[in-house]
Specification:
Distance between the termini: 5 Å
Strand content: 15-25%
Number of domains: 2
Number of strands: 15
Structural class: alpha/beta
Largest sheet: 7 strands, parallel
CATH architecture of the largest domain: 3-Layer(aba) Sandwich
Helix content: 40-55%
Number of helices: 16
Length: 374
């Protein structure tokens, strides 16, 4: 049985790339494909894997260029990946991993984090919200084309895997899959993180610095509170956020895994202001024994144990509104609580990477067996 794994892109370090890596661990002899690969931009482990790519990879070595030329070049590049010789094709991503050519008799399993955001939820992009007149008309034309393409190829997978109940419902709305979607929550690599005996007096956030991530809310709150904050990430809002931040806020990027683990372990608390489809970073904080302050929407509702009245048996404190006032209130409440680091770490281990690898491997092999593939 010949197996191929397809990842949208490999130019950043995020949860999707870790899922692709886990598929490699589950099927180490499978061929690995992606339309864009930057070995210095993604996880080090990919350097040990032969990544099959094409001409688009030479163009799109950064997220900015990847997004800039994606329509139409990225879509074309994805469709030019010919995987018709494979019996099983595993797709990992939100968009172009679905656009590759596959054999009509192949088993196609798609781990889709959420339907293509630009096509199905364009209002999450600041550039779209700020567009007017002719610019908005051109945006809408492009978005309608993207939605048509994405829906067409979204009909091909035999099976979808989803991250949460919320994202499962989005997949059903967008693609109307013909088989039940099985939820397999993405993993945290707990072995990379540790509990510090003496955490320090800073709060911590790891995020792409994009409009929909709402990091500006955090920066504004910490400007007023004067508490120490470390922000790790990059994106289109990076310069803007730096321009409004006061001296108690530090920005970092390009950190090693060890440097990131140290920041997680020694923070007072981890912040997550966005409505995230899933969110690996809160689990990374938990794996470090650190509690989370999170906006009470999205994936955290399924991965975190919220504080109610027992600080020894919770992993996060939620705030209800995506506003500076609501976040400020949560931080001040957080300051009065004492959390159980070992309980928090034990909770994160339920989402550990080896458990996830076993689940995705068993799912693919079960469906291959039902199809008579050996």
């Amino acid at each position: 049985m010949k197996i191929a794994i397809v990842q949208d892109e490999l130019i950043s370090k995020a949860g999707g790339e870790r899922v692709g890596l886990c598929y490699h661990y589950a099927f180490p002899n499978a061929d690995f494909y992606s339309i864009a690969y930057n070995p210095n931009g993604t996880f080090e482990e990919f350097k040990k894997i032969k990544i099959n790519t094409n001409w688009y990879s030479k163009i799109a070595q950064t997220q900015k260029k990847y997004q800039k030329y994606f329509f139409p070049l990225g879509i074309l590049a994805a469709h030019m990946l010919d995987l018709r010789k494979y019996d099983v094709v595993i797709q990992s991503g939100t968009h172009c991993s679905k656009y590759v050519r596959v054999n009509k008799n192949a088993l196609v399993v798609c781990y889709c984090y959420t339907p293509f955001r630009l096509a199905w939820n364009p209002a999450s992009y600041l550039a779209y919200l700020e567009s007017k007149g002719l610019s908005r008309i051109l945006y809408n034309i492009t978005i309608n084309i993207l939605k048509t393409i994405d829906k067409h190829f979204g009909n091909r997978p035999d099976f979808f895997n989803g991250m949460t109940e919320e994202t499962k419902q989005r997949l059903i709305t967008a693609y109307q899959p013909r088989n039940e979607i099985k939820i397999i929550p993405p993993p945290v690599n707990a072995s990379q993180y540790y509990i510090s005996e003496k955490p320090k007096e800073y709060y911590f956030i790891v995020s792409r610095l994009e409009f929909y991530k709402k990091v500006d809310i955090v920066v504004n709150v910490f400007n007023k509170l004067g508490k120490n904050l470390i922000v790790v990430g990059k994106g289109t809002q990076e310069e803007y956020l730096k321009s409004i931040a006061k001296s108690n806020i530090t920005f970092k990027k390009g950190l090693s895994g060890a440097e990131l683990a140290d920041l997680y372990a020694n923070c007072k608390g981890f912040l997550m202001p966005q409505h995230e489809d899933y969110g690996i970073t809160p689990l990374e904080a938990n794996a470090s024994g650190r509690p989370v302050i999170a906006y009470a929407k999205g994936g955290v509702l399924e991965t975190m144990i919220p504080y109610t009245n027992n600080e020894n048996e919770c992993t996060a404190l939620f705030f209800e509104h995506q506003t500076e006032e609501s976040l400020t209130e949560a931080i001040l409440k957080f300051e009065t609580l004492k959390f159980n680091s070992q309980f928090i770490r034990n909770h994160a281990e339920k989402f550990d990477e080896p458990i996830f690898v076993e689940k995705i491997k068993n799912f693919v092999l079960e469906k291959a067996n039902e199809k008579g593939l050996k």
